[in-house]
């Protein structure tokens, strides 16, 4: 784990991955009703997929802390959104 990139390819990959996750976080966070792809919604129900998400965060943290920050934010928002979207909305009737 190093804060400084090992070479040009490493620096370029870090910038691309960080920028991609940053744009995805901005897109998903700026629009309230932007739907997730159906595949991500179906995969959320599998415990193995959640374990893979944790591994993704750990691997990105080993690679670069800046990338890990973006990946962990994206995973956190994804998990929180799925918890909210999979729970039925409770509505109470308006009574006087």
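Sequence proposed for the structure above (96 residues):
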């Amino acid at each position: 784990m190093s804060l400084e990139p090992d070479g040009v390819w490493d620096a370029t990959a870090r910038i691309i991955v960080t920028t991609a996750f940053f744009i995805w976080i901005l897109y998903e966070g700026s629009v309230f009703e932007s739907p997730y792809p159906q595949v991500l919604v179906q995969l959320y129900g599998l415990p193995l997929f959640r374990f893979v998400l944790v591994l993704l965060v750990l691997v990105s943290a080993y690679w670069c802390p800046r990338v890990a920050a973006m990946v962990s934010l994206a995973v956190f928002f994804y998990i929180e959104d799925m918890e909210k979207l999979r729970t039925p909305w409770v509505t109470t009737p308006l009574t006087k």
